[in-house]
Design brief:
Helix 1 packs parallel to helix 7, helix 2 crosses helix 3 and helix 5 packs across helix 6. This protein folds into 2 domains: about 120 residues, Rossmann fold (3-Layer(aba) Sandwich), CATH 3.40.50; about 110 residues, Rossmann fold (3-Layer(aba) Sandwich), CATH 3.40.50. The chain contains 8 helices and 12 strands. The C terminus is likely disordered. The chain is about 30% helix and about 20% strand. The chain is of the alpha/beta class. Bound molecules: NADP nicotinamide-adenine-dinucleotide phosphate. The site of NADP nicotinamide-adenine-dinucleotide phosphate has 24 residues, from strand 2, helix 2 and helix 3.
């Protein structure tokens, strides 16, 4: 039975692992940041590999036949490492790349390249900002302490932001539009800061902001390496089922 390593940390990675485990020896890899990750239903390894060298050594030791990058679209470092290791070791790679959201009529998006740029985009006048970014990124907003922040994360933000006015919510998606609508109204939010994660699970806040006429400061996706990829779990599983040779596809 062929061995597949799935780099995960997303709902789709878990779904893919559960689908492939019937026909392959699947291991799902998590970064180990979340304190109580969702049960995955397949063998899991946790924690960084120690850069691309560590990942290459892991693939060799475990005799992995196929590497699948199913990480979040903003997890650029592990995706770069995976592509580089695949190139150097010859282990085939496929990526599961969820498409980003596109603005539609009524959306008021301000695009920025980085979280730091998002801080500047809030401007100097005090605003009430909803930060739905993940706890790693929110520290950047200490540079603009004049705003009120509502910070939502899966695990607590520690230490708390060094700003005078911030509230914290612990929650794990999916988040439905009606609930997001109520949340934005309850906290009198006038700007949402978001990553362009794509998918349904976190789109509720975008739809709710549109309905309420609220601006969204949208942090653009980082550049990711070019590897053969699919947009959905089904499409990626089909690529494997159809005996696609990812090495040939990669053109190396
Ligand atoms: P990153 O900046 O690309 O990765 C930083 C380091 O974390 C990597 O160099 C690697 O350490 C380790 N790592 C990341 N993903 C890993 C995985 N699946 N298995 C083993 N090690 C992993 O990634 P990040 O943005 O910190 O994201 C970390 C994890 O959270 C990812 O699994 C991602 O799918 C998930 N996630 C991220 C976001 C986001 O917005 N960034 C949102 C939701 C979920 P070594 O170099 O030591 O191997």
């Amino acid at each position: 039975m062929k061995k597949i390593l799935i780099l995960g940390g997303t709902t789709e990675a878990r779904q893919l692992a559960e689908k492939l485990v019937e026909d392959f020896r699947v291991t799902l890899s998590l970064a180990g940041r979340t304190e109580s990750p969702v049960a995955q239903g397949v063998p899991v390894r946790s924690g960084g590999f120690g850069g691309s060298e560590g990942l290459a050594a892991y693939l060799k030791e475990t005799r992995t036949d196929l590497l699948i990058d199913a990480t979040h679209p903003y997890a650029a470092r592990i995706s770069a490492n995976a592509a580089q290791v695949a190139r150097l070791t010859g282990v085939p790679i496929l990526a599961l790349r969820r498409p980003g959201w596109e603005p539609v009529d009524g959306d008021r998006w301000t695009h920025v390249d980085t979280t730091g740029d998002a801080v500047h985009a809030l401007g100097s006048t005090p605003r009430r900002a909803f930060l739905a970014l993940g706890r790693q990124e929110v520290a950047a907003f200490e540079a603009a302490p004049q705003h009120h922040y509502l910070v939502r994360s899966v695990d607590p933000v520690e230490p708390k932001l060094a700003v005078p006015d911030a509230a914290y919510l612990l929650a794990r998606g999916p988040f439905r539009e009606p609930d997001e609508h109520a949340l934005l109204e309850e906290h009198r939010i006038d700007v949402v800061v978001s990553k362009n994660s794509g998918g349904e699970a976190t789109y509720g806040k975008i739809a709710a902001a549109r309905a309420l006429g609220i601006e969204v400061v949208m942090v653009r996706r980082p550049n990711l390496p070019e590897v053969p990829s699919a947009e959905t779990v089904e499409a990626l599983a089909a690529m494997i089922d159809h005996g696609l040779d990812p090495v040939a596809e990669r053109g190396v």
